[in-house]
């Protein structure tokens, strides 16, 4: 090609930089990629995420497995505990189908590794503190306007990789289609870090409290514990929707009120919550779009097919989807419609499988009563004791290799 295709990627999390990496590895380097990110700089930390199955294969094809393993949290597995911190069930790290994935790493650390790999590549340009404000598609490409001062530009394609609440998706597909694609699972979560204590170890600990409440403490590769609070409010209770728009102090106060009588290590957790400078809350949802492309705009990662944090598959699906999308664009650089169609054809079944949650989830894992919690722990204890987790793994976490991962011309490059 006499002129490089200009690809704009919205989102510098997991999918965006992965797409950029593989496009930059095409034999003739026929793409120029601009990645915009609304955050002012790469965001460190965040929640622990799993890299499983084909997600790990994609990481290997990028030549990043050793780097990512060196940044892993080294979580040994998951323990379900009662109010006395007695272990009721224990599940060690599995081979892609258990509670804990092949690699556990902080989301920000993984994004940082991907950023470091791509930022020095000449075909890739990063712009932080920016987001798309307007899209106009024409015969010769898409004219894009930006919110915070970046001059408008004409690009050949736009890839929305800006999360489950994607602004770019809304602009490209329309507000109603974008909103209808978000499937509320009836659960909310708050994430933050707290100082480690003597009760913390390399095991994650899961504690249920009556009222469909749950606390999860996970190890970090630093001196803190990654903490999350989870709750399923009554369906007609819209308080959380209002709190999502409130100030951080008001949000913290509300979560503290919800968990003040939860027992176990609630008081320690809530003290840490008040001091945390990385607190954020989020609705737990899936994204199910009828199509993943509209004209010259394609969706990737959570923007197109978020399986939700409770699936354990979000990062793997984002990595695999990014790899396949980049591969199909590279195969069909002058026919984006064909590239996007091939991408969706290859990925649809895999995404559908990844979005299949465990039967009754998330409600089954968040009982309303103490009796329900006792039954849950009895069941999990039986599963752990009998050693049938390997056979039942797919019931708890969708298969991470439920497709044939294609080989592209760049697929084995390092």
From TrEMBL:
Signal peptide residue numbers: none
Species this protein is from: Lecanosticta acicola
GO molecular function, one term: FAD binding
Cited InterPro entries: FAD-bd, FAD/NAD-bd_sf, FAD_aromatic-hydroxylase
Transmembrane segments: 371-388
Gene3D superfamilies listed in its UniProt record: D-Amino Acid Oxidase, subunit A, domain 2, FAD/NAD(P)-binding domain
Keyword NADP recorded: no
Keyword annotations: FAD, Flavoprotein, Membrane, Oxidoreductase, Transmembrane, Transmembrane helix
Protein name stated in the entry: Related to salicylate 1-monooxygenase
Domain FAD-binding: 6-352
């Amino acid at each position: 090609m006499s002129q490089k295709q200009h690809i704009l990627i919205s989102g510098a999390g997991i999918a965006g930089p992965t797409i950029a990496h593989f496009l930059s590895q095409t034999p003739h380097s026929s793409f120029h990629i601009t990645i915009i990110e609304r955050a002012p700089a790469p965001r460190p930390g965040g929640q622990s995420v799993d890299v499983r199955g084909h997600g790990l294969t994609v990481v290997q094809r990028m030549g990043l497995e050793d780097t990512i393993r060196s940044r892993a949290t080294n979580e040994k597995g998951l323990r379900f505990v009662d109010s006395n911190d007695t272990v009721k069930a224990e599940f060690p790290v599995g081979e892609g189908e258990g509670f804990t994935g092949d690699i556990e790493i902080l989301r920000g650390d993984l994004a940082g590794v991907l950023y470091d790999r791509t930022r020095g590549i000449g075909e890739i340009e990063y712009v932080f503190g920016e987001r798309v404000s307007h899209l106009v598609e024409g015969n010769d490409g898409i004219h894009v306007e930006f919110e915070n001062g970046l001059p408008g530009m004409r690009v050949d394609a736009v890839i929305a990789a800006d999360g489950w609440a994607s602004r770019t998706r809304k602009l490209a597909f329309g507000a109603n289609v974008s909103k209808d694609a978000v499937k509320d699972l009836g659960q909310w979560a708050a994430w933050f870090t707290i100082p480690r204590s003597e009760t913390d170890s390399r095991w994650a600990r899961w504690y249920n409290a009556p009222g469909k409440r749950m606390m999860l403490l996970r190890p970090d590769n630093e001196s803190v514990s990654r903490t999350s609070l989870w709750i399923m409010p009554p369906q007609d209770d819209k308080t959380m929707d209002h709190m999502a728009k409130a100030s951080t102090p008001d949000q913290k106060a509300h979560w503290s009120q919800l968990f003040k009588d939860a027992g176990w290590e609630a008081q320690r957790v809530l003290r840490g919550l008040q001091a945390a400078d990385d607190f954020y809350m989020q609705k737990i949802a899936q994204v199910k779009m009828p199509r993943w492309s509209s004209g010259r705009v394609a969706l990737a990662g959570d923007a197109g097919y978020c399986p939700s944090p409770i699936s354990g598959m979000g990062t793997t699906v984002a990595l695999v989807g990014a790899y396949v999308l980049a591969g199909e664009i590279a195969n069909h650089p002058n026919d984006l419609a064909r590239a996007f169609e091939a991408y969706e054809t290859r990925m649809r079944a895999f995404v559908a499988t990844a979005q299949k949650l465990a039967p009754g989830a998330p409600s089954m894992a968040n009982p309303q009563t103490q009796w329900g919690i006792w039954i849950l722990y009895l069941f999990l204890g039986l599963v752990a004791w009998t050693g049938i987790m390997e056979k039942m793994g797919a019931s708890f976490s969708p298969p991470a290799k439920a497709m044939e991962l294609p080989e592209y011309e760049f697929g084995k490059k390092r």
